[in-house]
Amino acid sequence: MSPGTGRVNIHATGVLVGGRGVLIRGAAGAGKSLLALELLARHAGARLVADDRVDIEPEGRGVSMRAPPALAGRIELRGRGIVARPFVSPAPVDLVVDLVDELVRMLEETAFTTDLLGMDLPRCPVPRRGVVDPAHQLLLVEEALSALGCAIDG
């Protein structure tokens, strides 16, 4: 944490989809940036918050995320390099997407929440690329956003 602010810099990617902030976590190479790019391409008005590193901090009864200044508007597209995308910062964290190593057919209800900075937030476990295809990943994220009352424009 930064002294006095409660701000923490984490390895993640953030996007805003349908007015909802989505924080994508996962191991290096799990496909965070690619999933974010697909969400940005698929949803009109979606915006990048930050790629690779995200500053998060408590805000009111929730958590906000923002781009570190050096990374604002930039995202990695493997095979191409760093590309520019429209961005917004800060944004709320409304949903945490965790890229996981296996597909569990029927998840326990406890799998759909996570603690972030001491706050319980909605969680969407999404199998990483190679375990499921990109279309399946998008369906899982969009279903989680829909459950939050987000109007999805696919």
Number of domains: 1
Q: Return the structural class.
A: alpha+beta
CATH class label: Alpha Beta
Largest sheet: 6 strands, mixed
Element pattern in H and E? EEEHEEEEEEEEEH
Helix percent reads: 10-25%
Tell me the overall shape: globular
How many helices? The count is: 2
Computed over alpha carbons, the radius of gyration is 14 Å
Strand order of the biggest β-sheet: 4-2-3-10-12-11
Report the β-strand fraction as a percent range: 35-45%
The CATH superfamily is P-loop containing nucleotide triphosphate hydrolases
Q: Give the low-pLDDT segments.
A: none
What's the overall average pLDDT, rounded?
Answer: 92
Number of strands: 12
Straight-line N-to-C gap: 37 Å
Written account of the structure:
The chain is built from two helices and twelve strands. It is α+β, with helices and mostly antiparallel strands and 154 residues long. The strands form three sheets. Strands 4-2-3-10-12-11 form a six-stranded mixed β-sheet. The protein is globular and about 40 Å long. The model has no long low-confidence stretch (mean pLDDT 92).
